[in-house]
């Protein structure tokens, strides 16, 4: 699958000019509010007609301003999950979910109703009407409704932004399952570092309607940019759940040779999980500390020391094959005489890794 | 209580009024929905002129509307002659003419009510339907129309009530022929023109009040049911 977008669009004094392509997995359109993310995703969906440009999906030309081609949204077969759920108030939850089935025609079977209901855990909601659902439940139904229309591509415009932290935590696992268990590529608009860190394979950073950077999630999130503030810089690590301690609700995750303990993670053994470790949550010690509450003390080697900014430096470490970044003050750097190649211990509080 | 017993002629007037009003309401409904949709959503030159024409019967004296209908839809009128020749539908001095007059008089009320509720529809829901594969016609039938239903019901009841009370345009266009064009209002008027007709006028007035009240209550119930279905999500 491939989506190629190359468009220019003017909205008053603001303009969006973007060219990118995406393939498998989750592509995040990442940027602050007002960076043009929503305009861009609406253009991909066909809800907004770009001033000029081309959009091609799997060789199927959807927009080509030179040849006056514009495929309307209902013929694109792109699912769209909006920031607000936009459920149909006059239909029951079940009929909301099956709405798209009326129109998908004979184009493939698509996922079965039972499978989606199971994936999203909405079995008990089917007989209700949207007015009686919580925000998180509505958004799950909206995701299911989009999936059941058997889309070729799923567009999501900040699907969690309207929800509180608890609801976000409730839905994120479903989005991960969606990414891992369906083959549908996803374009995911967000301004949240933690969502992008958890979900995205590829990240496209938008700034004032232009693409300012793009690359894999780990690279984009390890550097400060318009979308990633200095405070949020960190590393993204893919690990595998190795063991769980039910008594203390601690999960052991292995990434390379490093073992990382995180609290309260609802995932089965053998499952892949993504951790985002903010640089400011990583401490350094030149000798192995004792009597410390932090559960993660990882032997590491310094591979790079970044330039100083505002009295702080970012230090890249190799922890058993995994790169993590630690932010320390220049004072600490000089006191500990840190230099490239020096063996150190990286200390991460488990509590800081609460997903 | 003998004075409360209705004569055959009075029954005829009541039945005729109900038939005229129902036909006027149902026949104008599709046109009202179409015009309301155009006025609510359309962006074209001459929209305010269309809006003006639709609302004219509301502000013109009913006699003027009746007279215009007589000129246009009368036996020799351009539209009346055309319809009589090709479809066999004759309006002048028939109950169909009374229904036409009532429909025209009630049209602005119906359009207004439907238009307001179309304008209240959240268009983002229509966008969502489009992304799920629904083309414009299906979006209209499965999302817009159900959401507009309370407005349509209100408009229909309003139009029905207006048609029941319509007098000036009807009597000008199709006169006051017992059994053919003499509606409730015309019959009451006739009673007031003859000596000793007060009792008859009073009987029909009571009936008129009962019918109007019933229409209002039915509309309340229907609107309540419809509103429950489309309660904001």
From TrEMBL, chain A:
InterPro entries to which the protein is assigned, alphabetical: AAA+_ATPase, ABC_transporter-like_ATP-bd, ABC_transporter-like_CS, Mo/tungstate-bd_C_term_dom, ModC_ABC_ATP-bd, Molybdenum_import_ModC, Mop_domain, P-loop_NTPase
MF terms (GO), sorted A to Z: ATP binding
Keyword Chloroplast tagged: no
Signal peptide: none
Pfam families: ABC_tran, TOBE
Superkingdom of origin organism: Bacteria
PROSITE patterns with a match to the protein in the record: ABC_TRANSPORTER_1 (PS00211), ABC_TRANSPORTER_2 (PS50893), MOP (PS51866)
Cell membrane as UniProt keyword: yes
Ranges where the ABC transporter domain occurs: 2-233
UniProt KW keywords: ATP-binding, Cell inner membrane, Cell membrane, Membrane, Molybdenum, Nucleotide-binding, Translocase, Transport
All copies of domain Mop, residue ranges: 291-355
Family classification: Belongs to the ABC transporter superfamily.
Protein name: Molybdate transport system ATP-binding protein
Lineage: Bacteria, Pseudomonadati, Pseudomonadota, Alphaproteobacteria, Hyphomicrobiales
TrEMBL record, chain B:
Segments passing through the bilayer: 20-40, 52-73, 93-111, 132-160, 201-223
UniProt membrane topology term: Multi-pass membrane protein
Keywords on record: Cell inner membrane, Cell membrane, Membrane, Molybdenum, Transmembrane, Transmembrane helix, Transport
Coiled coil (residue ranges): none
Localization of this protein: Cell inner membrane; Cell membrane
Keyword Cell inner membrane on entry: yes
UniProt entry tagged with the keyword Cell inner membrane: yes
SUPFAM superfamilies assigned: MetI-like
Function: Part of the binding-protein-dependent transport system for molybdenum; probably responsible for the translocation of the substrate across the membrane.
Homology family: Belongs to the binding-protein-dependent transport system permease family. CysTW subfamily.
PANTHER family linked: MOLYBDENUM TRANSPORT SYSTEM PERMEASE PROTEIN MODB
UniProt-recorded name of the protein: Molybdenum transport system permease
Organism field: Rhizobium herbae
């Amino acid at each position: 699958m491939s989506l190629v977008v190359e468009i220019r669009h003017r909205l008053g004094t603001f303009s969006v000019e973007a060219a990118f392509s995406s393939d498998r997995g989750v592509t995040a359109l990442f940027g602050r509010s007002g960076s043009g993310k929503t305009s861009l995703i609406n253009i991909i969906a066909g809800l907004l007609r770009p001033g000029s440009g081309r959009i091609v999906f799997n060789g199927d030309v959807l927009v080509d301003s030179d040849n006056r081609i514009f495929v309307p949204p209902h013929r694109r077969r792109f699912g769209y999950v909006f920031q607000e759920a936009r459920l149909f108030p006059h239909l029951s939850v079940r009929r909301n979910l099956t709405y798209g089935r009326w129109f998908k025609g004979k184009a493939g079977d698509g996922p079965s109703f039972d499978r989606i209901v199971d994936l999203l855990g909405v079995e008990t909601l089917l007989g209700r009407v949207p007015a009686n659902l919580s925000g998180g439940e509505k958004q799950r139904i909206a995701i299911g409704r989009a999936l059941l229309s058997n889309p070729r591509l799923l567009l999501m415009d900040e699907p969690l932004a309207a929800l509180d932290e608890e609801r976000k935590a409730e839905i994120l696992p479903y989005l991960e399952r969606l990414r891992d268990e369906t083959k549908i590529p996803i374009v995911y608009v967000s301004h949240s570092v933690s969502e992008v860190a958890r979900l995205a394979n590829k990240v496209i950073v938008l700034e004032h309607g232009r693409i300012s950077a793009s690359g894999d999630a780990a690279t984009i999130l390890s550097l400060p940019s318009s979308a990633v503030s200095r405070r949020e810089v960190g590393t993204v690590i893919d690990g595998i759940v190795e063991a769980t301690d039910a008594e203390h609700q601690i999960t052991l995750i292995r990434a390379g040779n490093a073992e990382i303990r995180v609290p309260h993670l609802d995932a089965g053994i053998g499952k892949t999980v993504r951790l985002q470790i903010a640089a400011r949550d990583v401490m350094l010690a030149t000798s192995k500390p004792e009597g410390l509450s932090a559960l993660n003390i990882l032997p590491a080697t310094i591979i790079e020391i970044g330039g100083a900014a505002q009295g702080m430096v970012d230090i890249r470490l190799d922890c058993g094959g995994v790169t993590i970044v630690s932010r320390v003050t220049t004072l600490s750097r000089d006191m500990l005489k840190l230099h490239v190649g020096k063996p150190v211990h990286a200390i991460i509080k488990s509590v800081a890794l609460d997903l | 209580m003998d004075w409360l017993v209705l004569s055959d002629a009075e029954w005829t007037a009541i039945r005729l009024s109900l038939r005229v009003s129902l036909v006027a309401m149902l026949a104008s409904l599709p046109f009202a929905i179409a015009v309301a949709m155009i006025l609510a959503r359309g962006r074209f030159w001459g929209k305010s002129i269309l809006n003006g024409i639709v609302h004219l019967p509301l502000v013109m004296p009913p006699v003027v509307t009746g007279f215009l209908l007589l000129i246009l839809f009368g036996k020799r009128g351009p539209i009346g002659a055309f319809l009589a020749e090709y479809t066999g539908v004759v309006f002048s001095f028939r109950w169909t003419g009374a229904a036409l007059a009532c429909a025209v008089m009630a049209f602005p009320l119906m359009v207004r009510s439907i238009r307001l509720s179309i304008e209240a529809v959240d268009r983002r829901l229509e966008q969502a339907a489009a992304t799920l594969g629904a083309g414009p016609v299906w979006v209209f039938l499965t999302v817009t129309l159900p959401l507009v239903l309370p407005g349509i019901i209100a408009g229909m009841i309003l139009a029905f009530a207006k048609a029941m009370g319509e007098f000036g345009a009807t009597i000008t266009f199709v006169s006051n022929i017992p059994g053919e064009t003499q509606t409730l209002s015309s019959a009451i008027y006739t009673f007031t023109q003859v000596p000793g007709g007060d009792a008859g006028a009073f009987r029909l007035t009571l009936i008129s009040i009962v019918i109007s009240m019933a229409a209002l209550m039915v509309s309340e119930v229907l609107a309540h049911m419809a509103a429950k279905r489309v309660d904001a999500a």
